[in-house]
Amino acid sequence: MGLLTLGNPLTWDETVPYLDYIKTHGISQFINLYNRLKNRQGDQLKWGDEIEYTIIQFDHQNKRVQVSLKAHELLKRLNAQEEVNSVVGMENKFLWRPEFAGYMIEGTPGVPYGGLLACFNLVEYNMMHRRSEVTKMLKSGESIMSISFPLLGTPDFTSPSTHITYNDENGAGRSIFFPDDAIYSGHPRFKNLVRNIRSRRGEKVNIQVPIFRDKNTPIPFREKLPVSDDEDANKHVKDDFIYMDHMGFGMGCCCLQVTFQACNIDEARYVYDQLTPITPILLALSASTPIFRGYLADVDSRWNIISSAVDDRTFEERGLTDTISPNRFRLEKSRYDSTDCYIDSSSIPYNDIPLCYDEKIYKQLLDGGIDEALSKHIAHMFVRDPLQVFRERIEQDDTKSTEHFETIQSSNWMNMRFKPPPPDALEIGWRVEFRPTEVQLTDFENAAYCCFVVLLTRVVISYRLNFLIPCSKVTENMEIAQKKDAVLNEKFFFRKKLFSCQSTSEASQICEKDDIYAKMTVNEIINGDGKEFTGLVPLLKQFLDSADIDVDTRCTISQYLSFIQKRASGEIHTLAHWMREYVDKHSDYKHDSVVPQSTIYDMLTCMDEISKGNKHCPKLLGCYRSKTDHLIPKAVRKFEESLVIQKALRKH
């Protein structure tokens, strides 16, 4: 979830004197890196996924389910095996890293996938064996699931038991629901981040999620808090909303992210912009989080919950004061939210959201040779303060390090992320990270979403498609995407004609017209409207028809695309819809928006069986099976590599 540096993290009060220093040097570091690598060319398309998993403890005798706080223990064993493999010269098939909570781990492929189409056939197999590797280390009753746990913050939701410390002045989060002992203990970053967000903000985070109103839900719905003497809770709790007060309610949820390497910086910026309007569509299409603190919510996604969970804006930045201090800004969004601007120069006419940034930093970037569009993006990120500074890492060589830049860049959690190459890893180029997708229950689903997005980047680059709409409409779409059953019931702003990108002057003229975009359903966007709009999947199939691709890979991709199409049409349910339906039909649920422990236990037991392949669920998954494998056949690899070489030679 960000930069993991060894050292002693500073408290917020200790960080304040270094804020300007870190920002100034962070910008210098980026300028130095940019000018050194801006002409880097010819990097191969590589990509990889990041899946966050929750470790679950089932008590089958008492029909209870909890999260298991054994991430640190598991990671010691998993990382030790990685080191052994490296020493003996064996390739690591997967890599494991810590996440925010003590019940979470993050898994990635051991090496990135390459640019061959046949690599799509490796993805699901790798995910399956990732899960299997951890499962072998678990005890009876434990399971690893790619879900966000629906009982976070309920009494005794962890195993072993932990206790809330809301009245402990030295506590990190001081939550009345989420114990600090549920935070990952193996690195000081995580608790310090919780503490510094609360300290900078001036109060605990305030997360408000609208309750789903069922037929027996009280009017008004009013929570009974577990304590009566918490000032923030008494101030913020309100009727008809689920209240939460800790970073763990957001960062303790799991997600799915995909990172791509572009051939150069220009392609990376272009792909960043073109995928930005796609992010709300994938958020709606992957909806999987309808239950928070054991209550049915009126949203299907974790997005705004995480946004509020890390919202470090001060009272004046949130507009709650009459005046604002010099060199401070009114900030409309949390540092976890949708992007406010496109970053390629040709996209400037679509940047209709007013950006706040420090003129001094903006000038520093321009003077350093950075163009207007990218300078504004970086300067806008740098209105945020660094939340994590390590005492031993304050003084750095700006020509060799980008740590001060990354400490701010990596804590701007947006739906897309533009990632410069690391200064100390020559094999890594300019990258783009696609961040909105909700994690799915099964490896098939997660592989399908990853391959869909990666294939879409291929088509965008090959056909020079243009998905751009005004950036403010993407922000609106991100809000729409979180609504209950948005994939079925909502319409999104989307570009009507996906013609090639035009020059900046042409784009400016087009942007003055209102007819470049229309409101469409997810089904229309994915499958086409049967009239003028082709649809994304038909475009992908058109691309595949013109590509040389082996039979097994084509079969696998076809299964994934058909699955995406049916989920977009509603023929196959999102996980959020499936969970709601399960709860609604459960005998212990009283239709009052409160989901009992027994219902959650039965539902997660069923979900666990589905995720392991022991139970078939056509409503959620359809009847698909890929031909995923652990390697690319030599003949296929040789043939595809020859095509890549021929294409590269034609370019030159």
UniProtKB/TrEMBL annotation:
EC nos: 6.3.2.2
Entry keywords, A to Z: ATP-binding, Glutathione biosynthesis, Ligase, Nucleotide-binding
Pathway the protein acts in: Sulfur metabolism; glutathione biosynthesis; glutathione from L-cysteine and L-glutamate: step 1/2
Pfam families (alphabetical): GCS
NAD recorded as keyword: no
GO molecular function, one term: ATP binding
Enzyme class: ligase
GO process annotations (BP): glutathione biosynthetic process; response to arsenic-containing substance; response to heat; response to superoxide
Cellular component, GO, one term: glutamate-cysteine ligase complex
Catalyzed reactions per annotation: L-cysteine + L-glutamate + ATP = gamma-L-glutamyl-L-cysteine + ADP + phosphate + H(+)
Similarity comment: family membership: Belongs to the glutamate--cysteine ligase type 3 family.
Name of this chain's protein: Glutamate--cysteine ligase
Organism in which the protein naturally occurs: Strongyloides ratti
